[in-house]
Design brief:
The chain is an alpha+beta fold. It has a domain of 186 residues: Dipeptide-binding Protein, domain 3 (Roll). Helix content is 26%, strand content 20%. It has 15 helices and 21 strands. Strands 1, 7, 8, 9, 10, 11, 12, 16, 17, 18 and 19 form an eleven-stranded mixed sheet that branches. The radius of gyration is 25 Å and the shape is globular.
Length: 569
């Protein structure tokens, strides 16, 4: 049978396209295997059910948002062709809606098309009041998310939203496949193990085996939108151990290609790098090591009401005690010992960008043991026979928990000593990071449950706008049995004034006014001493000298551009 010229041209074009696609897939996986080690092991691959950085970043290899932030904090399209703005018509002039349009031809790793229905489903999944969504603050003031057609999504807000980029921008709010997660909304969300451990995604890799709190095995996504990527056919995401051991596997032994969060004494890290197998990379963002004060009573005798707002803390409810704990700490020494040039002492939980950094709390930079003692004396907390302060039969005896890590244990030891100098007894507890930052609802040791008096950890936020981040400390974000302990407000802090400032920021467009409101919220948290900031930490990681394409990003997932990684010849 003879073909017409049009048919022949069409067939030729099809053959060329098929040939190019095949050639692209020959390039995919060309560099074999890549190994990543996060000494805090991933416990789940669903960021909506975990606030742990290690879970969010492991998931970013598989599931993706509509847009991301690059290494300079700029918003960049990811599953869309452009960022909606007022100027291009994507954001309503009255700032009450934003309309996103998915790129054409996107498919999930199982080959099915990505549609606006998946985005709508994901929004409703997180906003379900029974779901305990860890990223709910990102959906602040959202009243509806609707599909206008197969590729177009309209998000409507109940108030004008000068920064409408909370939902689906950054690694904390990726898109879930509706077909896979159907039946997993609300109270059922934590029980969908297969989905939470092996989400179907649009990212460069797919999960082949997930061992919670241990190892994740992945392979290149055969349906990735760029058929020449990723360069690696398989990937291992290893968890567990400690930061020192993780660093050694990249910088000294060459067992792994990338090691994250190298919370190690700087002189030790420098010595490892001298072995010549790897390179240390670092950068400052918004990561703050802090102590969270539990304003509720963690006494196990309270049963299901333990660490809930039903029972105020017997002594940490007293602001004088909280302030004295902060005054006793030498942040300069902590920074020097723990981080060197990769840390800066801070008195703020919001240290950056610079426009948002308050100077109202800088007195904390100077340790004041004498002042702390005088404050406690004045508040009626007097030393008992053993030197521990007490009042009305209540002793200042603290259980202080954190994750297992050499730097954090050094911090605990120093802070315990300083607190002993003001008459506070301290019991130290460290918990495996995979458990502490995990989402196991049956564990008493997660940082959300906070079954201790105080706890220490660090976290940060996607991008450069802090509205959603500051939303973590509104009243509705308090973890409790009712929301499966998944809220972001670990201190259990509740203030109508704070919530009012947050609502005002949500409706404010002027950048200087937004900065004023953000500083005011930061100062309220600092001056009520519900959070005790310690160190503004630079992110410190390391990669093998043979690994190319690594771009450290402090504003999004550190693994944001893993599709561009390759092996040097």
């Amino acid at each position: 049978m003879k073909l017409s010229k049009i048919a022949m041209a069409t067939a030729g074009a099809s053959m060329l396209a098929t040939s190019a696609f095949a050639a692209g897939h020959e390039m995919q996986g060309r560099d074999g295997h890549v190994g990543i080690i996060y000494w805090q092991a991933a416990s789940i691959l669903n960021p909506y059910l975990s606030g742990g950085t290690k879970d969010i970043e492991a998931a970013s290899l598989v599931i993706e948002p509509l847009a991301r932030y690059d290494q300079d904090g700029n918003m960049v399209p990811w599953l869309v062709d452009e960022i909606p703005t007022v100027e291009n018509g994507g954001v309503a002039e009255d700032l009450t809606s934003i309309t996103w349009k998915l790129s054409e031809g996107l498919v999930w790793s199982d080959g099915t098309p990505v549609t606006s229905a998946d985005v709508v489903f994901t929004a409703n999944y997180c906003m379900d009041p029974e779901g305990g969504c860890q990223q709910l603050a990102k959906f602040g003031d959202v009243t509806s998310v609707e599909a206008l057609d197969d590729l177009t999504i309209k998000i409507t807000f109940g108030v004008p939203k000068p920064f409408p980029y909370g939902p689906f921008v950054g690694g904390q709010t990726p898109i879930l496949q509706a077909a896979q997660f159907e039946g997993c909304s609300g109270a059922a969300a934590p029980s969908c193990t297969d989905q939470n451990f092996g989400p179907i995604g649009t990212g460069p890799f797919v999960v082949t085996e997930f061992r919670a709190n241990d190892t994740i095995s992945m392979e290149a996504n055969p349906n990735y939108r760029d058929p020449s990527k990723p360069a690696f056919a398989t990937l291992t995401f290893k968890g567990g151990g400690d930061a020192t051991a993780a660093a050694r596997t990249v910088l000294e032994t060459g067992e792994f290609d990338y090691a994250w969060n190298l919370q190690i004494a700087p002189e030790v890290l420098d010595e490892m790098e001298s072995a010549g197998k790897g390179t240390i990379v670092s950068g400052f963002g918004t990561l703050v090591e802090r102590i969270m004060i539990n304003l509720t009573d963690p006494n196990p005798d309270l049963g299901d009401e333990r660490s809930t707002v039903a029972h105020p803390h017997p002594f940490l409810s007293d602001i004088a005690v909280r302030q004295a704990l902060s005054m006793a700490i030498d942040r300069e020494l902590l920074t020097e010992i723990g981080y060197g040039q990769a840390g800066r002492p801070t008195c703020n939980v919001l240290p950056a960008p610079a426009i948002y950094a308050s100077t109202a709390n800088d007195a904390c930079l100077v340790q004041d043991i004498a002042g702390a003692n005088a404050l406690l004396d004045e508040a009626g907390w007097l030393p008992g026979a053993d030197g521990i302060r007490e009042k009305d039969g209540v002793r200042l005896s603290i259980l202080y928990q954190t994750s297992t890590n050499a730097v954090r244990q050094d911090f605990q030891a120093l802070i315990k000593q300083w607190w002993s100098e003001i008459g506070v007894e301290t019991e130290l507890k460290n918990i495996d990071a995979g458990v502490f930052f995990g989402g196991d609802q049956s564990s008493p040791d997660t940082f959300q449950k906070l079954f201790a008096d105080v706890e220490m950890y660090a976290n940060n936020f996607d991008g450069t706008d802090p509205e959603a981040y500051m939303g973590n400390w509104k009243c509705s974000e308090i973890p409790s049995p009712e929301n499966a302990w998944l809220g972001g407000n670990m201190p259990r802090y509740c203030s109508e004034a704070y919530d009012g400032l947050l609502a005002e920021m949500a409706g404010t467009a002027d950048i200087d006014e937004r900065a004023r409101l953000a500083k005011a919220m930061n100062d309220m948290l600092m001056q009520e001493y519900v959070i005790i900031p310690l160190v503004d930490r630079g992110r410190v990681s390391a990669h093998a000298n043979t690994l190319e394409g690594v771009v450290l990003n402090t504003w999004d997932s550190e693994l944001w551009n893993v599709a561009d990684w390759s092996r040097a010849d």
